[in-house]
Amino acid sequence: MQNIPHKSLLPEGIRPGTVLRIRGLVPPNASRFHVNLLCGEEQGSDAALHFNPRLDTSEVVFNSKEQGSWGREERGPGVPFQRGQPFEVLIIASDDGFKVCEPLRSTHMCIFYRLPFGRLRGNWIN
């Protein structure tokens, strides 16, 4: 298991057909956690996808960051995560955008797309 926070290079980038599987354990005292698909390694890099389950407000927020500014938040239905429990999230890149789903509970959360995949060559996930 990786330390948190964790940042990894995705050397092949992301293109339609890419599937990212993220597994973890929600800490018992967590109120929120996030996964970002970044367009670069630098501090403040644009984020093509910000996936942010908020257990404290019972919602999942999706967003993007472009030229240093966050966009309008979009909310998915409910939070399929529980404190102290393992989770798995699939992020599937398609021509329509990122499909985010939680396969352990067969939950589809959102299709999200704002930044073109061409911006995601050699990008980072944290």
UniProtKB/TrEMBL annotation:
PROSITE patterns: GALECTIN (PS51304). Keywords: Lectin. The keyword Phosphoprotein does not apply. The keyword DNA repair does not apply. It holds the Pfam family Gal-bind_lectin. One of its GO terms (molecular function) is carbohydrate binding. Residues 6-126 form the Galectin domain. This is Galectin. The lineage of its organism: Eukaryota, Metazoa, Chordata, Craniata, Vertebrata.
